[in-house]
Design goal:
Elements: H1 11-14, E1 63-66, E2 69-72, E3 74-78, H2 85-101, E4 105-107, H3 117-120, H4 126-130, E5 136-145, E6 148-157, E7 166-172, H5 177-193, E8 202-210, E9 213-220, E10 227-228, E11 236-242, E12 245-251, E13 257-261, E14 274-281, E15 284-291, E16 294-300, E17 308-309, E18 316-321, E19 327-331, E20 338-341, E21 344-345, E22 352-361, E23 364-372, E24 378-382, E25 392-393, E26 401-406, E27 413-417, E28 423-427, E29 435-438, E30 443-447
Parallel strand pairs: 3-4, 3-5
Antiparallel strand pairs: 1-2, 5-6, 6-7, 8-9, 8-30, 9-10, 11-12, 12-13, 14-15, 15-16, 16-17, 18-19, 19-20, 20-21, 22-23, 23-24, 24-25, 26-27, 27-28, 28-29
Helix pairs in contact: 2-5
Protein name: TolB N-terminal domain-containing protein
Family: Belongs to the TolB family.
Keywords: Signal
Amino acid sequence: MNQLLFANLTTKKIHLSALAVTATTLAFGVFGAIPAQAQTPPPAGASSSLPSVSQPTGGEVKTITVSGGNRTLFKLAVAPLVGERDTSNTVVEVASRDFTLSSIFQVLDPKSFTANLSAEGTGIEPASWRNIGAEGVVKGLSSMRGSNVHLELRLFVVSRGTEAVLKKDYDVPPTGVRGAVHQFCNEVVKWFTGTAGSFGTRMVFSATTGRGQKGIFTIDSDGAGLSRLSTVSNVALAPAVGPGGVYYSAGMPDGTYQLFKVGSSSPVVKNPGLIFGVGFGGGKMALVVSQNGQSDIFTGGPDGSGLSKSTQGGLNTHPAIGPGGQLAYVSNQGGNPQIYVDGKRVSWRGTYNMAPVWCNDPEGVRILFMGRDGATWDIFSVDPSGSPGSMKRLTQDQGSNTYPACSPDGRQVAFFSTRGGGGIYLSNPQGMNQQRISTASGESLRWEGN
């Protein structure tokens, strides 16, 4: 892994869809009939320029949306565990990181703690924590039970007194401590919001590994556990998480690109042309196929069965299936590449928009995408209806920002950025609380479970 070359994103790498027009002719009749698509005129109020923000994005989150309105971030103390020090350090580190990235909690500095931790043990003396402004406290203990680590983790709400409001116990191997902490943090988020968090899920992406070579990589939602996945080719692109694992497009010796699943040497879908890009959702697969100088999207069963053509005209790429089965994708049928949903154009601003993904934002379903109207890429979101006024900017004046991905719970957005040497950043769906979680750079970022 130390030899891995994570190349910074360039315009050449972004125009991967151009590869589609060089593929050999696709066997046309296999995929069924071609539905007609109507052109949508620009809606009233549409503008040619991308929206900007009145103040820099990426700053500290001040408030969060909760049932019944907004409130300030919940001030949370994560105390050392009773028990072995290394395990305690891991728990505090992982939990503090998760809670900070959530944009729901303000994690208090341990140096501010005035409570007598030894005397408190696994309980709390509310006054001691109230004095430093803590509204909640996470505590627990660890011990060995045979070869496993036993964890007892507790959440206290200071205003509710000395009884824990959430108690969870875990028995895991030493290598499973991080995962147990992620599970507990998800339960804490659920206690406050009614919906569990997405900590412990993983992201996949492709990255340059050498000259003319690309590989598929996976990384934890907090930036830990970066690893390379085994692929059938040293040119592996456009990964997506689907039924039972990770799927990707692989360049073959005969010049074609075929769809594979990690762990299998047989193609999921094989065709004489170029298969480049796939999306899953709602029990369906959406597949990008090149033929006759065009790139079109075919949809069918998640195993690749019953594929039929869903687009017509121009280059159509980057499929993403929404929570209701809607198909979002990129098409240049109207001139410049723009975002479409089920044949209807939904992005009317900017000269080049691409890489859409669906995001189940707690404030309403949105489509995230990367766009530009100059030399720099930024992250935007738009309502699936395509209302011109619904387009929002998440990044601005912070390097080039590309390939957004949304967490399964809709509360976090991941993307690549060139700022500060480059890497993967997380923010909330409004573009605030931007934090780098990894120095890895690449393209085609996807988040497991979404």
